[in-house]
Write a structure and sequence with these properties.
two-stranded antiparallel sheet; 2 domains; 15% strand; 381 residues; 9-stranded mixed β-sheet; elongated; alpha+beta; 14 helices
Length: 381
């Protein structure tokens, strides 16, 4: 502790250089932590749904093709199936084209059974079942448009030539719930569509997770060779199919993050070498006063470590704030809309910051601390 003031004094010796070094490290670690957080969040989304008992059943030809509503009764009769909830995509916008967010219609009588982990209160589910124009909204959409429970909103149709007027009766609050989604009653949508009797997707709940493969096989075999064959997959596989569009981007993000860290490490090493070279005379004087080489090395590394950690804290804080804002305002990323910096990424970034600080100064500091006193004074003179 007695050398703390000496370290702080040396850090303020060249304020401009210190601030620029901290800023450069902060920018690089901001980029690193933000990029590495994306694939980590994607992995967490998949791990959260890996043991799910929900199945998605959609048309084998693709999500753009519908299925007869009558499939619901046949799917419900499959062994181990507990509930079936038809789902139809609406795709409306709130005000402007830029106000798009996922919105779809589901059957109200089975929605609570299908998604008990969405954090919707019993009272809200009750209103959703009884009020024809009721809707439930994710937390990010509520924040994005400054909505509140009880508010009436209108969604403008993009796929369909009509609008729907909805009343918010509850919020989907848990992390398992899609934060940017809005769901409303399918009977309301069917009435507006003229009751065509078709469905875009069926959500199926089975009794136990180990029975998911058996139920998937039974459902698809039941509709084989029909006019609308089905493809059933677990919730994890269904969400993973959307993730496939981002896997290359995630890999590039990780590689780019590593490249940025290596680059700034080299820059920091050059800066540390210049700083220590300028202080060779001071270091020689300290050695002549009795300071051991080990102590001088520790002081030099401590200065560099402080600079690295300050840069890491600033970079992590900025990345956390930006990702938080981005998660609210970017619904285009679908199942990974709730982008936040995981704690392990925060810890890893701070470790990287410490390593940048220590390793960038290690070689020049070690050489300076072990330099012959006479030779050092003669070089300065």
């Amino acid at each position: 502790m007695k050398y703390v003031m000496l370290v702080l004094k040396n850090l303020t010796r060249s304020k401009r250089r210190t601030l620029l070094t901290i800023f450069s490290i902060a920018v690089s670690l901001f980029i690193f932590s933000a990029l590495v957080s994306l694939p980590t969040v994607a992995s967490e989304v998949l791990s959260d749904t890996a043991s799910s008992v929900r199945i998605s059943t959609h048309n084998k030809a693709g999500l753009a093709y519908s299925m007869p509503e009558a499939y619901k009764q046949r799917i419900a009769a499959v062994p181990h199936v507990v509930a079936v909830t038809p789902e139809s995509w609406f795709g409306g916008i709130y005000h402007e084209v830029t106000d798009q967010f996922p919105n779809l219609a589901v059957d109200p009588d089975t929605a609570e059974t299908m998604w008990p982990d969405w954090g919707v209160s019993k009272e809200s589910w009750k209103k959703f079942e009884t009020l024809r124009t009721a809707c439930l909204v994710g937390t990010a959409t509520m924040k994005r448009f400054h909505l509140h429970v009880g508010q009436q909103i209108m969604l403008r149709g993009t796929i369909y030539p009509f609008n729907v007027t909805l009343q918010i009766v509850g919020v989907m609050q848990q992390s398992n719930a899609p934060p940017n989604f809005l769901i409303f009653r399918r009977d309301y949508l069917e009435e507006a569509r003229g009751r065509p009797g078709v469905v875009d997707n069926f959500w199926v709940m089975v009794d136990r997770s180990e029975n998911v493969p058996q139920a998937i096989k039974a459902i698809d075999e039941g509709f084989a060779n029909s006019t609308a064959e089905t493809r059933s997959e677990s919730e994890a596989a269904f969400i993973g199919s959307f993730m496939d569009n981002f896997r290359t981007f995630f890999r590039l993000a990780e590689i780019l993050g590593v490249i940025v860290v290596i680059t700034i490490g080299l820059v920091a090493a050059n800066t540390a070498a210049m700083s220590i070279r300028e202080r060779r005379g001071e270091i020689a004087v300290m050695r002549s006063m009795g300071f051991p080489s080990r102590t001088i090395l520790s002081l030099l590394l401590s200065e560099s470590l402080v600079i690295g950690l300050l840069g890491g804290i600033i970079g992590c804080g900025a990345a956390f704030a930006v990702l938080k804002i981005f998660s609210i305002g970017s619904p285009a990323l679908g199942p990974i809309t709730d982008i936040q910096m995981p704690p392990e990424i925060l810890a890893a970034t701070l470790v990287v910051a410490a390593l940048i600080g220590l390793l960038s100064a290690w070689i020049p500091a070690r050489a300076a601390a072990r330099m012959n006193i006479v030779d050092a004074l003669r070089m300065v003179a």
